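Bump. Still looking for DUF35 domain-containing protein structure tokens.
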Amino acid sequence: MNTVLECPDCGRRTFYEKRRCLDCGADDLRSREAGVGTLRAVTAVHVTPDGVSEPNRLGLASFDGDASIIAQLEDGLEPGDRVTLEPSVSWEDVESPRLVQANQSRS
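Sorry for the wait, here they are.
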């Protein structure tokens, strides 16, 4: 998931599947590249399900158009860093996004 859904009417962007724009109600959301965002906050989860490493570092990042996402973090990232998303296979072979340093992206 390195794309966002963008409303063609008002420009709002979101990461998660929606049928309508949350701002204007338009129903013609289009897929766009997420681009580069800014890491806003980090945390670590110390009690995780079987198969998920501990601590599980997560970050909140914001991207253009008010799109924000919480995702697993590449080691060494701190708030204020520029980030991009790359796909990552995580718990139970489910693909989920991972935040990586913008100039390190492999996607």
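Strands lie at 3-6, 13-14, 30-33, 37-45, 56-63, 67-73, 82-89, 95-101.

Edit: fixed formatting.
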